[in-house]
Amino acid sequence: MQALLEQIKWNADGLVAAIAQEVGSGQVLMLAWMNREALLVTIREQRAVYFSRSRQRLWRKGEESGHIQRLLELRLDCDGDTLLLTVEQVGGIACHTGHHHCFYRQHKNNDWQEVELVVKSATEIYGERVDD
Amino acid sequence: MQALLEQIKWNADGLVAAIAQEVGSGQVLMLAWMNREALLVTIREQRAVYFSRSRQRLWRKGEESGHIQRLLELRLDCDGDTLLLTVEQVGGIACHTGHHHCFYRQHKNNDWQEVELVVKSATEIYGERVDD
């Protein structure tokens, strides 16, 4: 497992970028970060586990919302500093805002305009808390 | 244009992550970075212009190879620190290695295994130089 980790170009914070892409739709769901432990747990459990930079701890995607990401395929890019995860997005919601994915704002008329509706409101997902 | 930039959460180096996704195939081609100028030029010229961290200068994707990326759509994620570009990949080659995209290595048998062939060799693309 060590050899696997050594081929990754970890940044100064010990992290690597990780893009989650939905199987079937091909939609890019989100970008997050992994440290060594997050990657090892992701591989072991075959579900996306990131490292939360804001909370400085492992972030088991879906731990509060139930919207976990099952890992189907894992790839590394040419220079070793970005991972690409093909995932099944449980619940069809990847974003903490309740949108299907995090890229719901589009550049239009010199602004970032929301072009997609939420699937569920954050309150519906989390109760009063907005997290995950 | 200033308002557009202000909604982006630039990192400590003044950069934002930018994912390029191919129109049609939906394939994630690469992850690169943009500074403010790169983003403004990208919007103005409707082609992907990144900031090269290794060369510390604007990197007009395809400037040497001809494999430019025409911009079709530009999105921003929920927390403003990642851009998603939908692009037309001219020449069908996004990676400097000559692969269609940068994610040609897959996690298999505890290793990163190349699972895609190059479209053209780097020498064919660049002559003796490997760049871009």
Describe the protein in words.
The structure is a homodimer of 132-residue chains. Chain A has 132 residues and is an alpha+beta fold. Chain A has one domain (2-126): Ubiquitin-like (UB roll). The first copy, chain A, is 15% helix and 35% strand. In chain A, the strands form 3 sheets. Chain A has a 4-stranded mixed β-sheet with strand order 2-1-6-5. A two-stranded antiparallel ribbon of chain A has the order 3-4. The model of chain A has no long low-confidence stretch (mean pLDDT 94).
Main attributes of the structure:
alpha+beta; homodimer; 8 strands; four-stranded mixed beta sheet; Ubiquitin-like (UB roll); 132 residues
Topology of this protein?
2 copies of one chain form a homodimer.
Chain A: H1 2-6, E1 16-22, E2 28-34, H2 36-45, E3 49-52, E4 57-60, E5 69-76, E6 82-89, E7 105-108, E8 111-114, H3 122-126
Parallel strand pairs in A: 1-6
Antiparallel strand pairs in A: 1-2, 3-4, 5-6, 7-8
Question: For the record, what is the CATH homologous superfamily label of chain A?
Answer: Phosphoribosyl-AMP cyclohydrolase
List the chains of the largest interface with their residue counts.
A-B, 37 and 37 residues
Main β sheet profile of chain A: 4 strands, mixed
Distance between the termini of chain A: 28 Å
Strand order of the largest sheet of chain A: 2-1-6-5
Order of helices and strands of chain A: HEEHEEEEEEH
Q: What shape does the CA trace of chain A take?
A: globular
Q: In percent, how much strand structure appears in the residues of chain A?
A: 25-35%
Rg over CA atoms of chain A: 15 Å
* Quantity of strands of chain A, as a count: 8
The oligomeric status of these chains comes to homodimer
Give the helix tally of chain A. 3
Q: Domains counted in the coordinates of chain A: how many?
A: 1
- Give the CATH class of chain A: Alpha Beta
Low-pLDDT ranges of chain A = none
User: Could you please say which CATH topology of chain A applies here?
Assistant: Ubiquitin-like (UB roll)
Q: If classified by CATH, what would the architecture of chain A be? A: Roll
How much is the average pLDDT of chain A?
Answer: 94
**Percentage of residues in helical conformation of chain A:** 10-25%
Counting helices, strands and paired strands, the structural category of chain A is alpha+beta
